[in-house]
Design brief:
Order of helices and strands: HHHHHHH
Largest sheet: none
Strand content: under 5%
Number of helices: 7
Number of strands: 0
Oligomer: single chain
Radius of gyration: 19 Å
Helix content: over 70%
Structural class: mainly alpha
Number of domains: 2
Length: about 160
């Protein structure tokens, strides 16, 4: 696996955990080049180790990473328990869904729903997104220290392979 940052490494692990292993085993789908140098057992072991570290994070940080990388609705619903819910649960869920997936109603639609000016909902949405991104950065920082050696080793292996070719 070739990853230059903790975000890339976590993204690759979520990709393997949620889609790649199932697709490869069931349908024989082509694997991305990042995974070609590893056997299936090595991939499972590497991914399992990193996912175990992710799942040991505090609940909020773990939920943010799962919502961001897998777009799971259950994680987004859990994240609403950590938001102010000033305009209701559904509005916070829509803001979280838009942050995680890029899909959902905009500030104007949310403002019309509550009879509030769209700039007010925009500021409220920015406040929630700021909370989510703060939790995301805390999660990446917590993972970066124990996984820094793996990232540097992967960089070294990639440089070594490029020099050998």
């Amino acid at each position: 696996m070739h990853a230059s940052t903790i975000q890339n490494l976590v993204g690759l692990c979520f990709q393997m955990e949620t889609t790649l292993l199932l697709k490869t085993q069931k349908f024989g789908v082509y694997e991305p080049p990042e995974f070609e140098s590893l056997t299936m057992h090595e991939k499972i072991a590497q991914t399992g180790m990193i996912m175990a570290k992710i799942n040991r994070l505090p609940n909020l940080q773990r939920a943010v990473l799962w919502a961001l990388h897998t777009k799971r609705e259950t994680e987004m619903i859990y994240l609403t328990t950590h938001t102010p819910c000033k305009y209701g649960y559904k509005t916070d869920l829509d803001i979280i869904r838009k942050w995680a997936t890029g899909k959902g109603p905009g500030c104007r639609d949310l403002g019309d729903r509550h009879g509030v000016h769209h700039t007010t909902l925009h500021r409220y949405g920015k406040k929630i997104v700021r909370q989510l991104e703060q939790a995301m950065h805390q999660a990446y920082a917590a993972l970066e220290a124990p996984l820094a050696e793996m990232i540097s080793r992967l960089r070294y292996e990639a440089a070594y392979e490029a020099a050998a070719a």
